[in-house]
Design brief:
Layout lengths: L6 H5 L9 H16 L9 H9 L7 H10 L10 H17 L2 E2 L7 E3 L7 H8 L9 H11 L3 E2 L2 E2 L1 E3 L6 E2 L10 H4 L11 H6 L3 H13 L4 E4 L6 H8 L3 E6 L2 H13 L6 E5 L2 H11 L4 E4 L19 H7 L12 E6 L12 E7 L10 E8 L1
Parallel strand pairs: 1-6, 7-8, 7-10, 8-9, 10-11
Antiparallel strand pairs: 2-5, 3-4, 11-13, 12-13
Helix pairs in contact: 2-5, 4-5, 10-11
The structure holds S-adenosylmethionine (SAM).
């Protein structure tokens, strides 16, 4: 990080301290302990000192300005001089206030800010199995790193892992930083292009979409933004008749090839064209059809809950362009990014599900998408 300035560098302003300052500081503290019986706050040995000097100071930087004059001339101090010993002790106290202790005892963690529609089962899966009331500090640090500020359904999670003043959680290990948040499941279709690779609905989520439509008794569905066809194919595999539309000719051709390789061409028709323009005609021809919407939210970052733009109902309609109208009479299934503001869905009888990464993918704890069915 560019603004990382270790304490040692800050103390070397306006001119470097003589190297002998540091061993002398430790020896003065030892001499003082012998005289008064009082142990240092932080600097018990050279290891503590070196660790403190490498750290970025926390809190009020005016403490650095207080510390520096205490160290001036210390390299020449007489070890038996009580005044110098007390100055070393003041320096030790300031070190303690500037450099946090790494917490090693268990920490009580709380996670708040859940969208009320997220079930306890999903919450437990997202948080993981470690007991929140007494978590290993390193696990707490990972949880803070992964979940604090994560936008799920338009609500921000807050992870609180309080430690006593002067202490801090350890840094989350590199290999546990943010990986699963972004990890994809890969595509299960034989033919995909670059867009298809990140936008294909993972198999287990496409399964869930098909189950939802089947349970709602849907016989025909229109998928105006079908991409390489994952959801459309899964609907067809469930015996639902599908009218799918894809505007990119190459991708529409891939969707057709995918439909062939799954043997569902009798149930699935892929139209190449503008799904928004074709929707009224397809609905007129199939008046009982449901509509499935998975419009493009703009790249892999669409699945990143930290993305800034508001993803809500108005934004969803805007993705379809100025002529996009979602008919109210048809059952509607939406596939939404996990940060979609669920509260902005229009009035209606909505069933909302939170979909996690596939079992065994390493992303089981991550909410990937939300689906919302208006019956
Ligand atoms: C998120 S992807 C769909 C992924 C699909 N559900 C799957 O799982 O394979 C959205 C697709 O909509 C297409 N698209 C965007 N606007 C469109 C429009 N007006 N008409 C038809 N397709 C459109 C994009 O080219 C993209 O392939």
């Amino acid at each position: 990080m560019s603004d990382f300035i270790p304490l040692r560098e800050l103390l070397d302003e306006p001119r470097p301290l003589p190297r002998k300052t540091w061993p002398k500081l430790i020896r003065l503290l030892r001499a003082r302990k012998k005289r008064t019986g009082e142990a240092p706050v932080l600097l018990h040995g050279n290891g503590d000192l070196q660790r403190g000097l490498q750290m970025r100071p926390k809190g009020d930087l005016s403490l650095v300005a207080e510390l520096r004059p205490l160290l001036d001339g210390m390299h020449r101090a007489d070890l038996e001089d009580a005044t110098w010993q007390d100055r070393a002790s003041q320096a030790d106290v300031l070190f303690g206030r500037l450099t946090p202790r790494i917490r090693i005892e268990p920490v009580a963690v709380t996670v708040t800010g859940w969208h009320p529609l997220i079930t306890q089962e999903v919450r437990d899966a997202v948080v993981g199995h470690a007991p929140l009331a007494a978590m290993r500090p390193v696990d707490a640090a990972v949880l803070v790193h992964e979940l604090d500020g994560l936008n799920l359904g338009g609500h921000l999670l807050a992870v609180d892992a309080p430690v006593e003043p002067g202490a801090t959680l350890p840094a989350p290990p590199r290999d546990r930083r943010g990986g699963p948040r972004r990890r994809g499941d890969g595509s299960w279709l034989p033919n995909v292009d670059a867009v298809g690779r990140w936008s294909t609905t993972p198999r287990h989520i496409a399964d869930a979409h098909a189950d939802v439509l089947q349970e709602a008794g849907v016989r025909t569905v229109i998928d105006p933004f079908c991409g390489c066809g994952a959801d459309a194919i899964r609907f067809a595999l469930a015996g639902i008749t599908v009218h799918a539309v894809e505007c990119e000719p190459g991708r529409a051709a891939m969707a057709r090839r995918n439909a062939s390789s799954f043997g569902v061409t009798d149930h699935l028709t892929v139209h190449q064209g503008d799904g928004v323009a074709l929707l009224p005609k397809l609905l007129a021809e199939n008046p009982d059809a449901a509509i499935f919407l998975d419009p493009p939210w703009g790249g892999a970052e669409a699945q990143d809950g930290t993305a800034r733009e508001l993803r809500d109902w108005t934004a969803l309609l805007a993705l379809g362009g100025p002529n996009f109208v979602v008919p109210e009479h048809a059952p509607l299934l939406l596939k939404l990014p996990r940060d979609f503001a669920i509260d902005t869905l229009p009035e209606g009888d909505w069933v909302v599900d939170w979909h996690r990464g596939a079992e065994g993918s390493g992303a089981e704890r991550v909410i990937k998408t939300i689906s919302a069915l208006r019956r």
